[in-house]
Amino acid sequence: MEDAAVQSEGRSGGIVINDGWPGYSLDLFSYPAHYSGDLDCVFIPHGVITDRTERLARNIMDDLGDHDIVVLCVLKGGYQFCVDLVDRIKALSRNSNRTIPMRVHFIRLKSYLNDQSTEDLHILGAEDLSFLAGKNVLIVEAIVGTGKTMETLLKHVEAFRPKMIKVAGLLVKRVPHNTACLPDYVGFEIPDRFVVGYALDYNEYFRDLDHICVISENGKMKYKIEKE
Ligand code: HPA
Ligand code: MG
After folding, report:
1. Of 97, 137, 175, 207, whose CA is between 20 and 30 Å from 36?
2. 112 lines ligand 1 (CB under 6 A)
3. How many angstroms is it from 85 CA to the middle of ligand 1?
């Protein structure tokens, strides 16, 4: 099917959502009333995210299941994906008699103002990661755009000499200047549109929305911050 909105698997290994995908009408789902008028469509329903996360957890278990893991959760956007992914890994580990000791550490990256990436990337909570030396590290990110942020973070983490680094990214965006840097585990490959929900924000709004949605022009205006 040439025009199918969703293909099974792309270069990234994630579920491909094509550029023409219009999303689902908001009327077909529940979402917080305080966001009515602020969204264009439901792009990825929460249930689909959950099911995909379950499969990613299994892939991660298959690859890393015999080792301890240090999970590096990239805040703030990655918190929901990280919680759900770690939960699924724990459940699989309980049910398979292969219990995996997991530690979870949080770091914070910030580079966006409104829907634009800014040049100054801040990495917080990552000053001393020396406890990563010799460990298997799983970096958990919500979204990878150009891949620049991921590259910077990988360099930073590599300097602490972990045994192995894997990256799980829920979303990979098809942007014009993608670097070669892709996560090892990808949930979905999406068009270059600004999405919110499932902990992804627009100026700190929409983290309390379960589905991944496309923000409307009205929503962008309403929550816009003027640059000083
Ligand atoms: N939504 C929210 N945060 C983001 C996005 C996005 O589409 N891209 C990069 N950070
Ligand atoms: Mg953000």
Report:
1. 175
2. yes
3. 19
Give yes or no for residue 143 CB within 6 A of ligand 1. yes
**Ligand 1 pocket, 171 CB below 6 A?**
no
Q: What angle do CA 60, 190, 8 make, to 5 degrees?
A: 60
Ligand 1 pocket check for 144: Cβ under 6 Å? no
Full pLDDT tens readout for the chain, 228 residues: 445 566 566 778 999 999 999 999 999 999 999 999 999 999 999 999 999 999 999 999 999 877 889 999 999 999 999 999 999 999 998 888 777 889 999 999 877 777 887 767 778 887 789 999 999 999 999 999 888 888 989 999 999 999 999 999 999 999 887 777 899 999 999 999 999 999 999 999 999 999 999 999 999 999 999 876
Ligand 1 site-directed mutation target among 150, 194, 205, most atoms within 8 Å of CB: 194
Buried b (16+ CB within 10 A) or exposed e, 111-148: bbeeeeeeeeeebeebeebeebeebbbbbbbbbbbebb
